[in-house]
TrEMBL record:
It comes from the Eukaryota. Keywords: Signal. This is BURP domain-containing protein. Residues 1-36 form the signal peptide. SMART domains: BURP. Residues 71-288 form the BURP domain. The lineage of its organism: Eukaryota, Viridiplantae, Streptophyta, Embryophyta, Tracheophyta. PANTHER family: BURP DOMAIN PROTEIN USPL1-LIKE. Pfam families: BURP.
Amino acid sequence: MGRSFAKGRKSMAFEVAASNLLLLILLILLAHGSESRKMSEKYGNNLELPSNDDEIKDEMSQRVDPSLMIFFTLKDMKVGQKIPIYFPKREPSTSPHLLGRDEAASIPFSSKKLDNLLEFFSLSQGSPQAKAMENTLSLCEIEPIKGETKFCATSLESMLDFARSAFGLESSFGVVTTTFLNKSSATFQNYTILEMPKEILAPKMVACHTMPYPYAVYYCHYQESENKVYKISLGGENGDGVDAVAVCHMDTSHWSRDHASFRVLRIEPGTLPVCHFFPADHLVWVPTPTSS
Ligand SMILES: *[C@@H]1O[C@H](CO)[C@@H](O)[C@H](O)[C@H]1NC(C)=O
Ligand SMILES: *[C@@H]1O[C@H](CO)[C@@H](O)[C@H](O)[C@H]1NC(C)=O
């Protein structure tokens, strides 16, 4: 069963997903502080970069890959502020399929099984999709860093179990996501903050990032350090309306100096909280306030 649907659905969606790998790895590495340099060196060589090579960050010319344009600081969080932002725009119909727990459990999820998996999904060795799968499996298998708890969910049920374990059995929780009210095809454009951003008061948050894989895989994680979650209403210069979710990491003093956010924002580690927007298909789980 898994096989027939996976074969049918794999091609298009998976290509699209693989091209956003740089952004995904970037978001995941946000939490990884001084580890990030080592890890980006480890994975950097295998990355499928966006196709516009000339835009990719070049140390000498100070140009920045547009897909890194997701960062801002708390100082920018005011009505009327203009921020250039990159939002990958994937049609929901091309997103990889979310499996049920039983079906997910029937397919191995391990880099040791990569060869079998490539055969199972009819992907050739060395293809961009094969590399993306390998990267996803490696990122899922890395030990979390100190203060972080992580889990790769291959079904909705396992993602909910992870969120429940983060918030405690008695807590109820919900999901917030970036949503497009209407959208143009421009992935990178200037947006203006339309209303005062609303903080979603959450003592803890679990971020789940979609990973390139033939079916839906979410890299979910949370940290002990303080984060704040916001809903921000944005108007794009191309007519896009976005109800965006952003997270601010309040303490960046332990992050690597090489972290992309410091380059983009031109700030030093630990000087200002670093905030970033979430792409539309990533999920942020937060406890819902208990009514009393
Ligand atoms: C955003 O606006 C500035 C000028 O206000 C312009 O230089 C820049 O190219 C714009 N960025 C994008 C992505 O359109
Ligand atoms: C989005 O909606 C606004 C107002 O509803 C409209 O003016 C604008 O043209 C729309 N943009 C696109 C890209 O459809």
